[in-house]
Amino acid sequence: QVQLVESGGGLVQPGGSLRLSCAASGSIVSIYAMGWYRQAPGKQRELVAVINSVITSGGSTNYADSVKGRFTISRENAKNTVSLQMNDLKPEDTAVYYCNIRGRKSLLTNFDSWGQGTQVTVSS
């Protein structure tokens, strides 16, 4: 099993910053993509940002339009970690944030793992 552990959520005032981190552990041969999703109360889970494999996709990134220019996703391959730097936070960014990592755990078996979620609340 591949397990993900998230950290870094909390309460912040509008305009503030937070950094989320997610570390993967377990049997990992390679990672295809690492991403962050969020789910606000009463809404569907949505993609926030994703960073793809350096080998297959050159480490390309994609962001939701609502966070472009404010959030930055990064990965540290050696530690199987992904981070999300969130700046200029707005009340509408309030949600539970989930880490997702997809990859290969053996030559024939892929994995698609989710973190437990971390609450981000933006409020004055």
Could you give a quick summary of the protein structure above?
This protein is mostly beta strands and 124 residues long. Helices cover 3% and strands 56% of the residues. The strands form two sheets. Strands 2, 4, 5, 6, 9, 10 and 11 form a seven-stranded mixed beta sheet that branches.
Task: Give an overview in words.
The protein is mainly beta. The protein contains 1 helix and 11 strands, in the order βββββαββββββ. The protein has one helix at residues 54-57; strands at residues 2-7, 10-12, 18-26, 30-39, 46-52, 61-63, 71-76, 81-86, 95-104, 110-114, 118-122. A hairpin with a 4-residue loop joins β7 and β8. The radius of gyration is 14 Å and the shape is globular. It starts with a strand and ends with a strand. The relative contact order is 0.33.
How is this fold's topology laid out?
Layout lengths: L1 E6 L2 E3 L5 E9 L3 E10 L6 E7 L1 H4 L3 E3 L7 E6 L4 E6 L8 E10 L5 E5 L3 E5 L2
Parallel strand pairs: 2-11
Antiparallel strand pairs: 1-3, 3-8, 4-5, 4-9, 5-6, 7-8, 9-10, 9-11
